[in-house]
Amino acid sequence: MRNLAELDNAVASFSDGNGKTVIEYKPSEAPIHLLPSRTPLEFSANATYFLVGCLGGLGRSLTSWMMKRGAKRFTSLSRSGTDAEQAALLVRDIREAGAIVQVIRGDASVRADVDRALESVPAEFPVRGVVQAAMVLRDGLFQSMNHRNWTTSIQPKVFGTVNLHNALKDQQLDFFVCTSSISGVLGTPGLTNYSASNAYLDALACHRVSQGLPCSSLVLPMISGVGVVAENLEIEEALKRKGIYGIDEEDLLESFEAAMMTQTTEKPFDHVIAGLDPARLQKVLSGNDVTDAFWLQDARFKGLMHTISAASGASAPGSDHSILDEIGAASSPQAAIEAIANHFADKLSRLLMVDRDDFEPDTISIADYGLDSMIGAELRNWIFKEYGLDIPFQQLLGQGMTINKFAAQVCKVNGIE
Ligand SMILES: NC(=O)c1ccc[n+]([C@@H]2O[C@H](COP(=O)([O-])OP(=O)(O)OC[C@H]3O[C@@H](n4cnc5c(N)ncnc54)[C@H](OP(=O)(O)O)[C@@H]3O)[C@@H](O)[C@H]2O)c1
C-alpha cells in the first residue's frame, strides 16, 4: 500500500516486478507538492535564429521544434550546407512548412565565415538566438593522437564558439546555447579532444554569464533516436559501458528549452546538465553492461555517488570489490597471477565480446584479440583503476604480452612475486 505522494517509487517497484501495489490517497499523511506550471518558451517570428552545425542530427530535431513554437527565420551555418541528403530534406521540409531558411556554407572556426553568415541576416529581422552545435569527432588516446585529429575536433567547438562570442558580443540576444557533452564533465579518456572542447564550452558560458551576456552550455548525455550517437552503435555501446544513460528526443528538447529559458531569468545558470540524474544513474550502474565507469572513483562525483547509494540503500557503486585485496590474500604468487588473469580475461571478454573460452592466456598476445584505439583507451584506464598499473599502450599491445605475462606484471608491481 503506497500513498499517492509516493507514486514514482510505486511505479518503479511495479516495473521491477515486485508484486502488486495499491495506491491510496491520504493528503493528511503526506501532502502532494505540485510544481507550478511553466509557460512554454515561444520564439519570435520576427527574429532570426542563428544555428551553427544544426543541419546534423540534433539540429534537425531542434529546428522543427523551434518552428512549432513560433520561429520562422533561420540562418544556418555549416561547412557542407545541404550536400547531405538529410540536410537537404530538412531545409526543404521547413521551407515547405513556411519558414525562411538561409543556408550559408562556411566554417565556424573561420571568423570571416561567421561574419559573412551574420552579414546575410536582414537588419529588420535581427539575430535573437544562437545555437552552436558544430562538432567533429576524432576519437583516440591522447598520447597516440596526431595533431590533425586533435585540432580537427577542437576547431569547431573552441575556435567556432570564440568566433561566435566575439562576433555577437554587442548583439542583444535572448539566448546563446552551446551544445556540450557529458564527456567533458566526466573527462572521457578515449575522447580527450572532444572532452577538452566541451569543457571549453562550459568555461566560455561561465565567462559570458559573468560578463552579463546570455549563455548556457547544455551538457548532454548520449541522445537516443537522433544525432551522431544514435547513428553509431559502437559509440553508443562504449558510452553504455561507461555508465552513461541516454535521453530521448523529448528530453533533449526539454533540455534545450531549459537552457534557453534560464538565460532570461534573474539568476541564469551558465550550464544545464541533462545526464546525471541520480535515479537514472542508479538503474544504469546496477546493470551488467557497465564495465568502464571510470568516473565513479572521481572525487568530484562523491556527492552524486552518495545520493545514488542513499536512494538505493546500497553501498556506493564501484566501492565494494577490489581485486587487489583478493590477490593480497592469495595463498601463493601463482594463485595471485591466476586471479588477475581471470579477472582481466573476464574484462576483455565483455569488452571485445569474445567468448571467454576462446582466450589462451599463455600463448596468444593481448593485441591479437583485436583492440581498437577507443577500446584500448578504455582498457588502459580500467587497468590503472583496478590494478594501479599505468602501462604504456605499446607495452600492453606488444607482441608476446600474453594475459598471463600481464598478470605476472600486475602482481610484481603490487609486490607479489
Ligand atoms: N548526438 C549525441 O548523442 C550528443 C551527445 C552529447 C552532445 N552532443 C552535442 O550535440 C551537438 C550536435 O550533435 P549531432 O549528433 O547533431 O552531431 P552531427 O550530426 O555530427 O552534427 C554536427 C554538425 O556540425 C557541423 N560542423 C562541424 N564542423 C563545423 C564547423 N567548423 N563549422 C560549422 N559547422 C560544423 C557538421 O556539418 P558540416 O560537416 O557540414 O560542417 C555537422 O552537421 C554537438 O555539439 C555534440 O557535441 C551530441
TrEMBL record:
Q: PROSITE patterns recorded for this chain?
A: CARRIER (PS50075), PHOSPHOPANTETHEINE (PS00012)
Q: What PANTHER family is this protein classified in?
A: FATTY ACID SYNTHASE, SI:DKEY-61P9.11
Query: Which keywords describe this protein according to UniProt?
Result: Phosphopantetheine, Phosphoprotein
Q: Which domain of life is it from?
A: Eukaryota
- UniProt name for this protein: Carrier domain-containing protein
Listed InterPro entries = ACP-like_sf (IPR036736), KR_dom (IPR057326), NAD(P)-bd_dom_sf (IPR036291), PKS_KR (IPR013968), PKS_NRPS_Biosynth_Enz (IPR050091), PKS_PP-bd (IPR020806), PP-bd_ACP (IPR009081), Ppantetheine_attach_site (IPR006162)
Domain named Carrier: residues: 331-414
Which GO molecular function annotations are given, in alphabetical order? fatty acid synthase activity; phosphopantetheine binding
GO annotation, biological process: fatty acid biosynthetic process; secondary metabolite biosynthetic process
